[in-house]
Structure formats: C-alpha cells, structure tokens
Task: structure prediction
Amino acid sequence: MSALLLTSTIMLGHFSIIPFISPYLVANVGFGEKQLYLIYAVGGALTIFSAPLVGKLADQRGKLPVFIVLAALSLIPIYLITTMPPSSLTMCCLWQGCSLFSPMVA
Result:
C-alpha cells in the first residue's frame, strides 16, 4: 500500500507541474509556441537514453538510495525552469536536459 501511495504522490506532483511548463515558457520566458516541442523532445530523448543507466544503477546500489538522490536532484532543474527569466532556447533546453531524471523518478 505504501508503494501505491508513493507512486500516486509522485504522479500528482508531475501532473501539478508539467501542464504549466508550456504556458509559463510562452508567457514569461518569451518562447514561441512553435519552439515548445523542442523542450519536450530534448527531455524525452534524454530520458530514453538515460533510463536504462538509472535502472542499472538502481540494481547495483538499491532502489531507495537511487530514488532519494534523484528525487532530491530533480528539485534543482524544476526550480530553475519555474523561475527562469527570459532566456534563450538553448538555455531552456539545457535546464530541461538537466531535469531528465525528474520523469524517471515517477
């Protein structure tokens, strides 16, 4: 039951943040709507390549320690993205790339 509660909490956290990234980037950072796909493409592509590596690390070090470290590290790019001033597309893709561990924690 505790695993189900943890998973539900993580999913709720993602559902609370991810839908608001696009409107925030358009309204506050100055992105055009035609550039938004790049943010999600970079994050998705990096997640595809890093997920097996994180899985191997979890097998070697244990699931809980890896989860705790990645959950803590995912707070940094989430904070940077949500407080980003008007920036270039490259900078935003860099922060999105840094947050590639955030979706894998779920």
